[in-house]
């Protein structure tokens, strides 16, 4: 199996994990706030990385200079990405956020063309827009509405999250050529662990309810969800996405993120028995067609 085939498999794999992560996030949010969810998620991820390192299953060798060089990646993802997203969801619905999140490939393509000099054909750009249109169609059909008074603030905050994700894609390509995938993943995870735990603990201390931080950990459903989010949706997806971006390019891989929308719909139908409507099928068809066209059509 050549490197390009492995990279496509990596892109498909992280899209599948992200698609199902929305299901587990929805379950976890039934027990804890978004900030506490992130704190526990990155605590699990950090603990697993420590165990893997101590048992010699992974080898990480980073100098202080290396860590400082990688830190900008962690600033944009997970920190700004999740912070902007969490505040945005206080003002707009998840459907509205989903529409804006679909813009990540467009932002990534624009940034990649400027900073990474990545080139895409006109036809590839069309297929990328087709995939984005599929996501937008699904969420508009679900009733997304930006006409509320607070929508403008939520819109701007969510754009901050989208832009942070796109910048992270660019930095993943750039830094991926300088460092090993696992080295990048470790720094990003540890920064998320430190910052999200500090913010979460501070909020509980401020409300004189420190035990509230530990309360969700008494629920099996929450523990299972956090394990999925911490191990698969943080460590594994982080490594797979960087691996794919380095070998396929930021603009090409970013469009795979829209496949997560299709898998989220399937997960909801299979596990939560949520209904699938005609607009789901139409939107999913556009998304898949866009991804296939973007990747099967070679640049001239």
From TrEMBL:
Keywords: Cell membrane, Membrane, Transmembrane, Transmembrane helix. SUPFAM superfamilies: Multidrug resistance efflux transporter EmrE. GO terms for cellular component: plasma membrane. InterPro entries: AA-Vitamin_Transporters (IPR050638), EamA_dom (IPR000620), EmrE-like (IPR037185). The keyword Protease does not apply. It is found in: Cell membrane. It is a multi-pass membrane protein. The chain crosses the membrane at residues 7-32, 38-55, 67-92, 98-116, 123-141, 153-172, 184-206, 226-246, 253-271, 277-296. Residues 6-139, 153-295 form the EamA domain. It comes from the Bacteria. PANTHER family: INNER MEMBRANE TRANSPORTER (PTHR32322), S-ADENOSYLMETHIONINE_S-ADENOSYLHOMOCYSTEINE TRANSPORTER (PTHR32322:SF18). Belongs to the EamA transporter family. This is Putative membrane protein. It comes from Streptococcus mitis ATCC 6249.
């Amino acid at each position: 199996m050549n490197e390009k085939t492995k990279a496509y498999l990596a892109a498909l794999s992280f899209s599948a994990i992200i698609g199902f992560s929305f299901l587990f996030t929805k379950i976890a949010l039934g027990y804890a706030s978004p900030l506490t969810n992130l704190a526990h998620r990155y605590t699990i991820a950090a603990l697993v990385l420590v165990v893997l390192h101590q048992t010699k299953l992974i080898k990480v060798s980073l100098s202080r200079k290396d860590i400082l060089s990688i830190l900008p990646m962690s600033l944009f993802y997970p920190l700004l990405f999740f912070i902007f997203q969490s505040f945005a969801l206080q003002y707009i619905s998840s459907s509205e956020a989903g529409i804006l999140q679909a813009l990540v490939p467009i932002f990534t393509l624009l940034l990649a063309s400027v900073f990474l000099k990545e080139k895409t054909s006109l036809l590839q750009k069309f297929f990328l827009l087709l995939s984005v249109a599929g996501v937008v169609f699904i969420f508009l059909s679900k009733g997304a509405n930006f006409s509320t008074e607070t929508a403008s603030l939520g819109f701007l905050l969510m754009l901050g999250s989208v832009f942070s994700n796109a910048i992270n894609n660019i930095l993943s390509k750039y830094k991926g050529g300088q460092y090993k995938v696992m080295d990048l993943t470790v720094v990003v995870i540890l920064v998320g662990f430190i910052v999200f735990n500090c913010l979460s603990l501070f909020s509980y201390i401020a409300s004189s309810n420190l035990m509230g931080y530990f309360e969700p950990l008494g629920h099996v459903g929450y523990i299972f969800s956090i394990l999925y989010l911490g191990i698969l949706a943080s460590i594994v997806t982080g490594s797979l996405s960087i691996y794919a971006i380095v070998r396929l390019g930021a603009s090409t891989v970013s469009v795979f993120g829209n496949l997560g929308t299709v898998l989220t719909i399937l997960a909801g139908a299979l596990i939560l028995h949520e209904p699938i409507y005609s607009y789901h099928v139409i939107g999913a068809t556009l998304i898949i067609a866009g991804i296939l066209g973007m990747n099967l059509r070679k640049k001239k």
